[in-house]
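INFO  loader      accepted 1 record
INFO  loader      residues=224
INFO  predictor   begin
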Amino acid sequence: MEILAPAGGIDTIEPAVRAGADAVYLGASAFSARASAKNFDKEELKSTVEYCRQRGVRVYLACNTLVRDDELKKALGLIEYACELPVDAVIIQDIGLAELVKKAAPGLRLHASTQMSVHTLGGVELLAEQGFKRVVLSRELSRDEIAEIAAKSPIELEVFVHGALCMCVSGQCWFSAMLGGRSGNRGACAQPCRLPFSVKGGTGHDLSLKDQSLIACLRELGAG
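INFO  predictor   done
INFO  writer      dumping tokens
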């Protein structure tokens, strides 16, 4: 089992590594689903990879938003720079970008973002055929569904064990985009589902799901 920690900025790298993370994932100044985080410029990304590599910790770069045609050159430039460092893998949502990356950097490991909303074995198998080495499963899957996919998956699987659950399947929620023009698929979700929406007999925040915590299930997740 690999313990993978998010890093929202350069100041979070050392705590994650010292706490025992086997790997960290982070976003650059663009194309990250955490656009509001501090994220990393090129020099910070370089120093982070050097710091982590000296300590045996892997670094995954998140380029996990949908990319417009006019942004492809910039996105590929970022990934080219990441290959020079090098990062250990790139986390991608946009399947078109993935196809271009495979041609430009055939040796680079591709991880499918949870934003791809992969929630079936068939989805995992399809991405494996397209060259992905790991799939980050949808956060909405149940224990039994994860176990069923893991039993036959041809590639690595990753699951979130802590954090917010979307009110809709990951990568398919347009609530923020429709309400305020801030799309979760562009890294800008305003999380409107956490605002006070109510129904009779509800909690007052009835579109806000309980946050996820699977700490008690870690041994079970690693058993396979």
